[in-house]
Design brief:
- The structure is a single chain.
- This protein is α+β, with helices and mostly antiparallel strands.
- 41% of the residues lie in helices and 23% in strands.
- Helix 1 crosses helix 6, helix 7 runs antiparallel to helix 8 and helix 9 packs antiparallel against helix 12.
- The radius of gyration is 29 Å and the shape is flat.
- The N and C termini lie far apart (78 Å).
- 45% of the residues are buried.
C-alpha cells in the first residue's frame, strides 16, 4: 500500500489542480472583479481583465470594461485573446500598438473590441505553471510607463496568490472527503484539520498536531520541519501522558540542538517520499541514531517499541517539507495498515498547513504593499502638524481595511478621515481603497458639513454597489480668528480624542450612528467643537483601543492616560507612545495625530 502512495498522491494533485482551474473559469468571481477594478482605476485604462485559459477558451473570472456579450458570458474564443501569448511565453507581454506587432495584428479583438494597446503579466500556480493573466487594454496607442507595469506585476502576484490558495483549498477538501471512508479515523482527521487551519502560526499548528496525534494514533510523536534551504524550522515532541510532557519537551530541545540528526530524519523520508516503517529501519538502528545525539535515554523514558516515520508533504508540488516520527511503547502493537493510511493523511494535512502559512506570508506581504500604496501623502498646511500611522495586525489575521486620509480644500479648510472597512484580507484592503477614494471624490471642493457628506457617501456605496460595511469619522478643520473650528460626523466609529494645551484630555462622545454601507440614511448629524492653538486631535481605528478581553472604554482610558499632561510633546513622540501602549495587535491600527498651532 505504502509503495503506491507517491504515484497516487501525484495523480490526485494533478487532477485537483485541473478541477480547480475549471472552477476558476466557470463564471465571474467578486474577488477578481475587485482586483480588475483596482487595476482599471490605478492604471487608468478602459479595460482590465483577470483571465484563465483552457485549451480553446479564454475565461474571465475578473473583468472591468468589456462590452456585451463578453462581459456577461465571461469567456471568449482564443481568436480574441492577447493573453494566450503571455501564457505561451510565460513572460509579460507589453505592446503599445498591437496593429504594428506581427504576432498580434490579426487578432479579432482589434476589430470586435477596439483594442489597440495591451499589457499582460502571467498568473501562476505553486508549480510555476502559467494559468492565465492579469491584463489591461486601451483603445488607442499607449506607451506603458514603468510604474504602471510595476503596479500590474504586483497586483498579478495578488491574483496568483488567490489562484494558489483556491487550488490548495480544493486539495484540502478532497483530502477531507477521502478520509471520510475510514470512520474510525474520521474524528481525528476532522479535528486535526480544524486545528491546523485555525492558525497561521506554523509552530502553534504543529504543536496542536502533536497533541492530537499522541495517544490516538501513537503513544508519542516527534515532529520536525525544514525550510527549502535545509535549515531546521521547527522541532517539537508530544506524549499522551501529561506526566511525560516535560521529558518530551527536553527531547525536542536536545534534538533541535543536534541539527544533523534531525536532518537525517527528514532525509530518510525525503529520499522516498513515503512512509518508512520499522521493517525498513528497525528500532535498534533508531536507538543508535538517538544515542549518537544523547537522546536514547529520553526516548526510552517515553517508550520505544515500534515506530513509523511519516513525510510531511506539500499537497501542491509533493515536496517533502519535514517528518513526523510516530512511536509506540513496547506494550502497544505495531502500526496497522489502517493506522499507516491515516498517518500518511496526517502528513499531507501537516504539509497543507505548512504550505498555507507560506502562501499566507506571501499574500500578506502583497496585501501590505497594496495597503501601504493606498495610504496618502499627507498635505503640508501652515499652522497644522499632521502625522499618520498604519500598522498591520500582529496575530494571524491578514491585512485589513483600516485607513486614514487628509486633504486640503480650496477654501483653506482641511478634511480629515479615519475609517475601517470590515474584513481582514486582500478584498478588505481593496474595498478600503474604493471607500477612501469615494470619500475624497465626494468631499473635495464642497463646503457641505461632514454629516451630509457621510450621508451622500452612504448613498454612493449603495448606488455603486460597493460591497462595504465600514465605520468612519469625517472631520473638517478650519481656522477661525485665533482658534480653530472642528466639525465632524461619526458613523459607528470610536470617538475623537482631544489633548488640550493645558494637558487635559477630552473624549468627544456622541450618540452612535450606524455604519456606512448598511441602510442608507437621509441625514447624519454634524457635531461642532472649538479648539485652541496648542491642541492635538486624535482620530483612530478600533485596533488602537480594542482588546478581546477588555471593554472599549478601557482602551480609551488607556489613550487618555498616555496623552494626559503631554501637550508639549512633539506629535511624532505622541504617535510612538500611542503605539507602545496598544495591546498586542489582533487588528489593524490606523490613526491621525493633528496638532494645531
Amino acid at each position: 500500500m505504502a509503495s503506491e502512495a507517491p504515484e497516487g498522491v501525484l495523480a490526485d494533485a494533478a487532477r485537483l489542480r485541473s478541477v480547480a482551474r475549471a472552477r476558476l473559469g466557470s463564471g465571474g468571481d467578486p474577488a477578481f472583479d475587485r482586483i480588475a477594478g483596482i487595476v482599471e482605476r490605478l492604471v487608468d485604462v478602459p479595460v482590465a481583465l483577470v483571465t484563465v485559459l483552457s485549451a480553446d477558451l479564454q475565461h474571465l473570472p475578473g473583468q472591468v470594461g468589456l462590452p456585451e456579450p463578453a462581459a456577461t458570458r465571461r469567456e471568449m474564443p482564443l481568436t480574441h485573446s492577447f493573453s494566450r501569448y503571455v501564457v505561451e511565453s510565460g513572460r509579460p507581454v507589453v505592446v503599445p500598438d498591437v496593429r504594428l506587432d506581427p504576432r498580434l495584428r490579426d487578432n479579432l479583438a482589434i476589430r470586435d473590441l477596439g483594442v489597440i494597446a495591451f499589457a499582460g503579466v502571467p498568473l501562476t500556480d505553486s508549480d510555476g505553471l502559467v494559468l492565465g493573466t492579469l491584463a489591461v487594454m486601451d483603445r488607442e496607442p499607449r506607451k506603458w510607463t514603468k510604474s504602471e507595469l510595476v503596479l500590474l506585476d504586483e497586483l498579478g502576484e495578488v491574483c496568483s496568490s488567490e489562484l494558489r490558495l483556491r487550488i490548495s483549498r480544493e486539495i484540502a477538501d478532497e483530502a477531507r472527503r477521502a478520509a471520510e471512508s475510514a470512520h474510525s479515523q474520521l474524528a481525528l482527521l476532522g479535528e486535526l484539520t480544524e486545528a491546523l487551519t485555525a492558525t497561521m502560526d506554523i509552530d502553534e499548528a504543529l504543536h496542536r498536531l502533536g497533541g492530537m496525534v499522541a495517544g490516538r494514533l501513537s503513544d508519542w510523536c516527534f515532529i520536525t520541519v525544514a525550510d527549502p534551504s535545509g535549515a531546521i524550522r521547527h522541532v517539537s515532541a508530544a506524549h499522551h501522558d501529561p506526566a511525560r510532557a516535560e521529558t518530551a519537551g527536553r527531547l525536542a530541545e536536545l534534538a533541535h540542538a543536534a541539527k544533523l540528526d534531525v536532518r537525517s530524519l527528514i532525509r530518510s523520508v525525503r529520499h522516498t517520499g513515503r512512509l518508512v516503517t520499522q521493517d525498513e529501519t528497525d528500532v535498534d538502528r533508531l536507538r543508535d541514531r538517538l544515542d549518537a545525539a544523547q537522546l536514547a535515554d529520553l526516548a526510552d523514558q517515553l517508550g520505544l517499541g515500534s515506530f513509523l516515520t511519516v513525510p510531511i508533504v506539500s499537497p501542491v508540488n509533493q515536496r517533502v517539507l519535514g517528518a513526523v516520527l510516530l512511536v509506540n511503547g513496547p506494550d502497544r502493537p505495531a502500526f496497522t495498515d489502517a493506522e499507516q493510511s491515516t498517518a500518511a493523511e496526517v502528513g499531507r494535512r501537516a504539509g497543507l498547513a505548512v504550505d498555507n502559512t507560506r502562501v499566507f506570508g506571501r499574500q500578506r506581504h502583497v496585501a501590505e504593499v497594496l495597503q501601504h500604496s493606498m495610504l496618502p501623502e499627507l498635505p503640508q498646511v501652515d499652522g497644522i502638524d499632521l502625522h499618520g500611522r498604519y500598522l498591520p495586525a500582529q496575530d494571524g489575521a491578514s491585512v485589513g481595511g483600516d485607513w486614514y486620509d487628509a486633504f486640503a480644500q480650496p477654501d483653506g479648510s482641511l478634511m480629515l478621515a479615519v475609517g475601517d472597512v470590515s474584513g481582514h484580507d486582500i478584498e478588505a484592503a481593496a474595498t478600503m481603497g474604493q471607500v477612501r477614494n469615494l470619500v475624497r471624490g465626494d468631499a473635495y471642493g464642497r463646503d457641505d458639513a461632514p454629516g451630509p457628506l457621510l450621508a451622500q457617501l452612504d448613498r454612493a456605496l449603495h448606488g455603486l454597489r460597493v460591497p462595504a460595511a465600514a465605520t468612519a469619522v469625517l472631520a473638517r478643520l478650519r481656522r477661525d480668528h485665533d482658534d480653530y473650528l472642528v466639525s465632524f460626523a461619526n458613523a459607528g466609529h470610536p470617538p475623537p480624542v482631544l489633548l488640550r494645551p493645558d494637558g487635559e484630555v477630552e473624549i468627544w462622545w456622541e450618540d452612535p450612528e450606524p455604519l456606512l454601507g448598511l441602510l442608507p440614511r437621509d441625514r447624519r448629524a454634524t457635531h461642532h467643537r472649538r479648539i485652541a492653538p496648542g491642541s492635538t486631535l486624535l482620530l483612530y481605528t478600533d485596533g488602537l483601543v480594542e482588546h478581546p478581553a477588555h471593554l472599549i472604554d478601557d482602551g480609551i482610558s488607556r489613550i487618555r492616560s498616555v496623552l494626559t499632561g503631554n501637550a508639549d510633546l512633539p506629535a511624532d513622540e505622541l504617535c510612538t507612545r500611542l503605539i507602545d501602549a496598544a495591546p498586542r495587535r489582533a487588528d489593524d491600527i490606523a490613526f491621525l495625530v493633528v496638532g494645531v498651532r
